[in-house]
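The methods section describes the discrete structure representation at length, but only in general terms. The central task, working out the structure tokens from the amino acid sequence alone, is never made concrete. Nothing conveys this as quickly as seeing an actual entry. For illustration, here is how one protein appears when written out as sequence plus structure tokens:
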Amino acid sequence: TLNLQEKDSEPVNLPAKLDGASLREAAGARAVAREEMEYKEEVEEEEEEERQRMEQDAEQQKEQEKQKREETERKLVEEEEKKDVPAEEEQKKPEEEVPQAASAEVEAASEDMATAPKQADLEPVSTEQEQGQNAREQQEQEQSVREQQAKQEEEDSKQKLQEEEEEQRRKQEADAQRRKEEQEELARQMAAASAEIPENMQKKAPGLRRTGSMSSLNSSISTFGAAASVVEVTGSITLSVAYAKRKLQVHIDECSGLSAPLKSSSADPYVKTYLLPDPKKQSKKKTKHVSKSLSPRFNETITYKVTDEEMSAGRVLWVSVWDNARLAANTFLGEIRLNLASADLSVKKSRTINLMGKESEPVSLQLLDREEAASALQQMQEEEARKREEEEHIAKEKEEEEARMRRRKEEEKQQQLEEEEKQKREEEERQRKSEEEKQRAEEEEQRKLKEAEERRKLEEEEQERKEEEAERHRKLEEEEMLKQQQAAEQKKEQEEEAEKKLKQEQEAEEQRKQQEEEEAEKQRRQQEEEEAEKQRKQQEEEAEKQRKLQEEEEAEKQRKLQEEEEAEKQHRQQEEEEAEKQRRQQEE
């Protein structure tokens, strides 16, 4: 069987034995390709399992590091609590001794105020205060050292975690590189296997053309001639087969993902069927072709009259898809051969099957049903596994959230304890300061009493001196009084005249100020009126602008609506013209 070619085509050499060794080589190539695909799937599954295992190991390692950090923090908190207890007791002891010593010294100072110096009495108090201050400074130094140690340990743990993450990342990159090299090696092997068969076949048939994929290998083997149109077989066909009352009904539903012929982006596919064995090709039937589609929908039923004996003997349904070329030979797009033996055809069941190349081996319909059932079972198992993984993931997230809540509570508790400790220290500091202020106040009061006594004596002496001086001055003042009375009368007359002049000047100043205020008020009113007029004009201009903008927007909207209506009319006219063309084409 040779494909017809155009006029004046090149001669084609007939193969010596096409039906024997060449077909066996093609079958061997298909078996190699299947084995390589199975091996590739196994490698991908192993890679996926390895990746999941590595992710689980990384999560476990992070969890362990997390637990170690929590344990370290808990130990540090316990050590700080143990160290803080004796420090507090030591701090309380000197602070209790300081008030007692201070009170004793105050009493001694009050008794011997006149004889004993104050600095000598306050020496024990200052010594106790220095001791308490030294103890507090030492405690603060220890606390700072512990904090630095905790920070250093935390930085070390972070650095260690980063190093482990970097090591894990390097391992993943190495595994990814190894998988990439394996895939490249597998691709090279597949390319070598796919290139081996056409080279052998070309020795027998120089006109053989090779396509670029293993799925079209069978069509390449049975295609000769340089002018024959060969495309890569892709896509699938959806059909159903049912047998009842000596009628075999084949319902062709649709095809999807078909390849387009050379130098074309679409096709006009149709389906052709045979019921084998059929030496005279009397069972040939075909559907109508669908124009310009690579996923055509036929929805046609083909019926064969077959007896029960013929069905039990085993028939093969040969379904092929072709491109309906008007001015050239039809192009083969793929086929499938279904072995109807032992298949349950009592129920009409829709099946989607991948298309194969020419001279493909018959596929058992019963085996397809089993594979579909196994695929459905596998999907159910995968769904259950996915649900289990989701439940485990939710439980894990819940545990992590609970752990975070516990850590947060512990941190809040620790912070509360630190706050209470801080408040306690502040309270003790306030008490100490109040005692010191009280002591200083008592000393200041005694100093003030002594100074007041000295001031009183000085004031008495000054008072006596002032009284003598006052008596002397009184006599002089009596003599001067007469002179002053006379001068006062003259001064009074001068003041009355000056007051009259001052009143006149004040009245004139008031009149001038009133005139200036009236003039300023008048100018202010004029400015306000001018400003109001400007604002009114601006508002009118803004209103005019807004009105113009609204009119322009309304006009733009109307223009757009008109353009859309025009476009809709043109679109409808184009659709009507297209429908008319299709109707005419169908009528032709």
The CA atoms of residues 39 and 390 lie 30 Å apart. Strands lie at 236-244, 247-256, 269-276, 285-286, 297-305, 316-323, 331-339, 350-354, 363-364. Confidence is low (pLDDT under 50) at residues 94-99, 113-126, 193-228. The radius of gyration is 56 Å.
